[in-house]
Every structure is written in C-alpha cells, then in structure tokens.
Design brief:
2 domains; alpha/beta; Arc Repressor Mutant, subunit A; five-stranded parallel β-sheet; Rossmann fold; 12 helices; 54% helix; 5 strands
Amino acid sequence: MPEMIRVALLDDHPLVLEGLKNRLDKEPDIEVPWTFVDPRELLRAVESGSCRPDVLVMDVSMPHMNGFELGKRLKERFGHSLKIILLSGYAYDEFYSKAYEIGVHAYLSKQSTYAQIMNAVRQSMLGHALVAEKVLARSRDLLTSAEREVLKRIAEEKTNKEIAQELAMSQRTVEHHMAAINRKLGVRTRIGAVARGYETGLLGSLNPNEE
C-alpha cells in the first residue's frame, strides 16, 4: 500500500463533496487531490492523465452518466489498478449485484459513517472487496453450474489443466470461468475465491461428503 492513498471524489452535490473531502483529508494516509460534480469531467480528466487516483469514491445516481456506466468504462480501461467505491441511497438487490459484477470494491449506503468509508478505501488498496451480506447470501445464484464446479476444484488445489481434463473443457474455458468467479465474488485471486466460497457456504454446499 502506498504511503498516501490518492482519492478522487465524484458527486453531483457540492456540499456532499466538500464534507467528505474535508473529512478524508484529515487522515494521515489519505489525500483528496480531485473532486468532480460531473462524471463527464472526471472521465475527461482520467483519460487525459491529469487525474490518476488510487481510489475513486462516487455516487451512483448522477446526471449525464450513472455510476454503473462510468464504473464499467473505467474498470475496462484500468482494471484492478483503479479501486472504485460506490455510494448510493438505494439498496436494491439488482444494484448490489450489478456493482460487484462490474468489479467495484464496495457498494456503500449514503448513510455510511465516515469511518466505514475510510475503511473501505483502505481495504480496497489491500485488494479486499467489502461485499454486502445480502450479496454473499446470493453468491450461489450468481455462479453458473460450470463456475461452481470450477470453484470446487480450485478449492481442491487442482491446476487449470487438471480442471480442464476433469470437466472436459479447454484450459482457456477454465480461465474464463475463473475470471467470472473472481468478478462475481468480488475477489482477485484463487485463494480469495476459495475463501469467499467458504464464507458464503458456497463450497460447503458443493461438498459431496456433506450430509
């Protein structure tokens, strides 16, 4: 983790921006060099190179471009190098699922405390995704049957080649399934996927010896 975490804030409400920036700037390991009220301005700044944050904290509901659309575009371009935290006043199941499918590191309520937001910022820099409990409970439904079979064999410490042979698929297909599993469970590594599988009971439900 860098000595200073550089954060960009995006919200179409200036008072919200000012309050969050002032609070984050008080932290010894966090600085907020950039704030934006228009998602188009942020996108231009990022694409021009004038804005290069470690973490982007942004609202979901904004004019011109919502947080899901912007987040998807940014993740497609910058991947894991840019951590994204979404703040929303909505707790719809489909919003949670959509956020984690995009690859955000946290989807937080706008009622979250500053401490919770700061924790999400720091955890994202460690590669950890803060997944809502309701999303964890639905993880089984997020994975296809093929993805669940791949995850089970990853937990058994099998290689991609071994998994491909057992499931009668190519190694490239195994890699695609692994990427989908990581994205849906909000993790980055095989170890993370296995850990999340046990956290949610997903792997337990796949255990053939389970009664």
